Amino acid sequence: MADQQRGVALAALLAQFGLGRLSATMSGCDFPSVIELNIGGVLYTTTLKTLISQPDSQLHAIFTGREPVTQDAKGRYFLDRDGVLFRYVLDFLRDGTVVLPECFRERERLRREAEKYLLPGLVEAISNDIRNRAPGVITVGYCA
């Protein structure tokens, strides 16, 4: 009974600060509100709220405790995926959009990452970006 009362109190406190959506996911898990990630060797820091913002995604399943996750030697949550491309996944989770650099050459790989993370909105945005690129256009310049 005391655990149930604590859970109700936690839910009320989170709701007071506009974080009511997190209450159900945090009550059974030990995930902090700020998450340190190691994605394929690239380090990221974000919020639990961002990681669970897409309810049907793999990240939502992991960070609500429905799927297991490994921690590295420093306690960061480790995913064996492309760490460089994850920055665009994280941008999408934060804003619901993705803006790719003009000279970005990894669209197909990013689309596969989005599929792996079960993010159909990101898959669609990347696919639209690929389709909307003007065919036969040569861009002169250097991309870093």
Give a brief description.
Residues 1-20 form the signal peptide. By secondary structure, the protein is α+β, with helices and mostly antiparallel strands.
- Please state how the strands of the largest beta sheet are arranged side by side: 2-1-4-3
What are the segments in which pLDDT stays under 50 over at least 5 consecutive residues?
Answer: 17-28
Secondary-structure-based class equals: alpha+beta
CATH architecture tag of the largest domain: 2-Layer Sandwich
Q: What overall form do the CA principal axes indicate? A: globular
CATH class of the largest domain: Alpha Beta
Write down the overall mean pLDDT.
82
Oligomer designation:
single chain
Number of helices: 7
Reported by name, the CATH topology of the largest domain is Potassium Channel Kv1.1, Chain A
As for the number of domains, it is: 2
- How would a textbook summarize the main sheet? 4 strands, mixed
What proportion of the residues form beta strands (DSSP E)? 5-15%
Protein name: BTB domain-containing protein
Pfam families: BTB_2
Keywords: Signal
Signal peptide: 1-20
